[in-house]
Design a protein that fits this description.
The protein has about 775 residues and is an alpha+beta fold. Among the domains are: about 130 residues, Beta Barrel (Barwin-like endoglucanases), CATH 2.40.40.50; about 35 residues, no CATH class; about 90 residues, Vcp-like ATPase, Chain A, domain 2; about 130 residues, no CATH class. Helices cover about 25% and strands about 20% of the residues. It has 18 helices and 35 strands. The strands form 12 sheets. It has a 6-stranded mixed barrel with strand order 1-7-2-6-5-8. Strands 15-17-22-19-20 form a 5-stranded mixed β-sheet, with no helix packed on it. Strand 5 and strand 6 form a beta hairpin. Helix 15 crosses helix 16 and helix 17 packs across helix 18. The radius of gyration is 43 Å and the shape is flat. This is Ubiquitin-protein ligase E3A N-terminal zinc-binding domain-containing protein. InterPro entries: AZUL (IPR032353), AZUL_sf (IPR042556), DUF7590 (IPR056012), Ufd1-like (IPR004854), Ufd1-like_Nn (IPR042299), UFD1_N2 (IPR055418). It comes from Penicillium canariense.
Length: about 775
């Protein structure tokens, strides 16, 4: 066992946090020289080649060259003896000599600077390495002092560092850690202890599994595991015990059993109590928010929402040419209404900081209209609608859970498409007063002229008029004392809570959680996150995955090529992949495929229809063979062909007439024949065919068929023929007529008989109905 253990150690300076900003979980990056040293120190392991498997050979083996058999035998012996292999996955033990703390980690890549190791934020915290220990990095990277080992203080964690090997290698700044290659056993069990009470297994089970799979290679006992939640909260667990027993395990390529055990009995009782309270206030209960669901037009919905929670609805069906009006009425001004379309460019539920339409007003009725010309509705599959209750005395969108004693707020929701302009109508207030009334200059009310002096004396003593909003208040009322007007817009209110809510919504600075943008107010943040934010999720039309619209290496959103293409930066890059056109076989970029296919469609529409055989029983097109002047294919013209000189075509006309006489008098005798002008044909649709038995009657019947035929080789004939043909031609003709009778092709366009005949000929007469394979 000892010879198969990878032994490698190095003392490396910790890279600055800026260089390790993108490292998740327990991942580290090492320099390229570390990989070379690891490969050199890798143990030699026996790799036997199956003796009975003749397909396993070295690349130089040639079975047709007898001189390579001896070399192949020697190569097999060398392979069977030993081969250097790195263990998978590579795991490391990192030790901080400052405090002797250690933690296990997995490798991300070998791209760090020489003599440096980049540690994720979780690893730096576990090792007790503070980020402010890197503030002197620029000074430390100056030419090193030759007396650095003689007692010069090392600026790492705010003090001197003693001990052998504690200096930063080659004068680099930052703390120094020792990295050991350490192979950990595959873990089968881990016990976690939550550091707070009230965790619900439904909250953390799926989150924990995804977080460990995406971010961790190892787990170290005694460390704190922080799992981010879906509502900006986080769950913190103590890694208490692992199996196989030890101070760390590897969690890659293994089935891991996880137990969540409370820290104490008191925490267990508190957790149970919180779960019961949460169950009592779950959506759909009398003390919780409503469930939401699918809405219908003109449906009155009476619901309720707890402060700090959302109730989500979905409108799936509506007439796209109608103007939608969404209205929410409530007695509480802290209930807001948001909506967003569901499409390829908008995927998230509407929230305070991410919505396309919203109403933050304090009115009892929240209304906004969605017009069909709105570009946000392009390609929308549905409309998401959300009602949100802002917790009292907190910022809008605050993720802090509301107090348990708060009661749900009732509201009514309705979506209509008619009567949209009634709310915009204003009443004529000029004619609402009686004749002889005059207007008070203080409160702007209309009073009888005989009582004006008495009214104004009382009004001027007790009332005050706000010229900005036109409202009248009592001078000593709390409403007037707390009355405010926003200096930046026309908003106003009469209490401190409304001012705090207004400032929180419209004037507080906010940071975009998906990029580095800083914006003022939630409406600006919501517009940014639904339009130009690089992290906005879209459904890529090429890879069909939910991805950010701009990646790290994608062009900018305002790049001219991006703006002209109408694609997002991700789609512009992803659409650069090529594929083969199924029509012409050319290699085309994915983003150019629609244009390429439109060229095919234009070519198909603009090209002339194929010429088909004028024999009404034949299903062939006219090729180089046959007689193009008559309009007959090779099969149909064959019985009429002779090698005699006939410049005027008189002999050809007689042969055509004899062909008709032969068909009507004796028939072709073929069982598949469906020629109406054949005695043995199965279908007799031409008038008088069955009754015509004498030569005179048959001659009268065939003369109208022969006379229109143009036998002049310089002029193309357009008159049809009714000759018996072979079984293939008859089958293709029947198939083409059947397809043409269906009227509309699969792409919504109708094809005439000529194209159907050409299609049946190209397909070899094989036709399958849609839905039947």
């Amino acid at each position: 066992m000892a010879e198969n253990t990878l032994t490698w150690s190095a003392q490396l300076a910790v890279a600055s946090p800026q260089r390790a900003a993108r490292l998740p979980g327990d991942k580290i990056t090492l320099p390229q020289s570390a990989l070379e040293q690891l490969l050199a120190a890798a143990p030699l392991q026996a790799v036997p080649v199956p003796p009975n498997n003749p397909r396993v050979h070295t690349p130089a083996f040639d079975p047709f060259n007898p001189h390579t058999f001896a070399a192949e035998s020697r190569a097999r012996q060398q392979i069977e003896e030993r081969q250097q292999q790195l263990p998978h996955p590579l795991t490391f033990r990192i030790v901080n000599p400052q405090n002797n703390r250690f933690v296990y980690a997995g490798i991300r890549e070998f791209s760090a600077a020489e003599n440096e190791v980049a540690l994720s934020a979780i690893l730096r915290e576990s090792l007790g390495i503070l980020d402010n220990g890197f503030e002197f990095e620029a000074a430390a990277q100056a030419p090193s002092n030759p007396n650095v080992n003689g007692g010069t203080p090392d600026m790492r964690m705010g003090g001197d560092v003693g001990g052998e090997g504690a200096q930063a290698p080659q004068g680099r700044a930052g703390p120094v850690v020792t990295v050991h290659a350490k192979q950990l056993p595959k873990g089968t069990y881990v016990r976690l202890r939550p550091l707070e009470a009230g965790y619900d297994p439904e909250d953390w089970k799926a989150l924990l599994e995804r977080h460990l799979r995406d971010n961790f290679t190892t787990l170290t006992t005694g460390e704190i595991l922080t799992v981010p939640g879906t509502r900006n909260e986080s769950f913190r667990f103590l890694l208490d015990k692992v199996f196989p027993e030890g101070d760390g395990i590897c969690i890659v390529d293994t089935d891991l059993e996880v137990d969540i055990v409370a820290l104490s009995e008191e925490q267990a009782r508190e957790t149970l109590q919180k779960r019961l309270e949460r169950a009592a206030r779950a959506p759909g209960t009398t003390s919780g928010s409503s469930v939401g669901g699918v809405l219908a037009l003109r449906e009155d919905v009476a619901a309720q929402v707890l402060p700090g929670e959302y109730v989500d609805y979905e409108l799936r069906e509506w007439k796209r040419e109608d103007v939608l009006q969404i209205e929410l009425t409530t007695d509480d001004p802290n209930v807001f209404l948001f909506a967003s379309p569901l499409g390829a460019r908008q995927r998230g539920r509407p929230r305070t900081d991410m919505h396309v339409w919203g109403d933050f007003s304090t009115q009892s009725s929240k209304i906004f209209k969605i017009r069909p010309t709105n570009t946000a509705l392009e390609g929308a599959e549905a409309i998401y609608i959300s009602a949100y209750a802002n917790p009292t005395n907190s910022g809008v969108g605050d993720s802090t859970p509301p107090p348990q004693q708060q009661q749900p707020i009732k509201y009514n929701l309705r979506i209509t498409t008619d009567g949209l302009d009634t709310a915009e109508e204003t009443e004529d207030t000029e004619g609402s007063h009686a004749p002889g009334d005059v207007q008070c200059k203080n409160c702007q009310q209309w009073v009888p002229e005989r009582t004006l002096v008495l009214h104004e004396n009382f009004c001027l003593r007790n009332n005050i008029f706000c010229p900005q909003c036109g409202n009248v208040f009592q001078k000593r009322s709390p409403e007037w004392e707390n009355h405010w007007h926003c200096p930046y817009d026309s908003s106003h209110g009469s209490d401190g809570a409304s001012k705090h809510s207004h400032d929180s919504i419209f004037h507080n600075p906010y940071d975009c959680p998906d990029c580095d943008a800083h914006l003022e107010g939630l409406p600006a943040l919501a517009q940014h996150r639904t339009t130009e934010c690089p992290g906005k999720l879209i459904l890529c039309q090429f890879c069909h995955l939910l991805v950010p619209q701009k990646g790290d290496s994608d062009p900018d959103l305002h790049d001219p090529e991006v703006m002209l293409s109408g694609l997002t930066p991700h789609e512009l890059v992803d659409g650069g992949r090529t594929t083969e056109c199924h029509l012409c076989g050319k290699i085309i970029r994915l983003r150019d495929m629609n244009t390429h296919l439109r060229h095919h469609d234009l070519e198909r529409v603009s090209r002339p229809a194929p010429r088909i055989c004028l024999n009404q029983n034949c299903g062939r097109t006219l090729t180089s063979a046959g007689n193009k002047s008559l309009g007959l294919c090779n099969i149909c013209f064959g019985p009429l062909y002779v090698d005699t000189y006939d410049p005027e075509g008189k002999a050809l006309r007689r042969r055509i007439e004899r062909r008709y006489l032969s068909q009507l008098m004796t028939g072709c005798g073929k069982t598949w024949c469906q020629n109406a002008y054949c005695k043995t044909g199965k279908q007799k649709t031409a008038a008088g065919v069955v009754a015509a038995t004498s030569v005179a009657d048959i001659t009268k019947l065939t003369r109208p068929l022969v006379e229109p035929v143009n036998v002049n080789p310089d002029v193309a004939n357009t008159a049809p023929f009714f000759f018996c043909t072979d079984e293939t031609g008859q089958h293709r003709r029947n198939l083409a007529e059947m397809i043409a009778a269906e009227g509309v092709a699969g792409d919504g366009k109708a094809y005439d008989l000529a194209w159907c005949v050409a299609g049946a000929e190209a397909a070899g007469g094989i036709w399958r109905r849609r839905g039947n394979g």
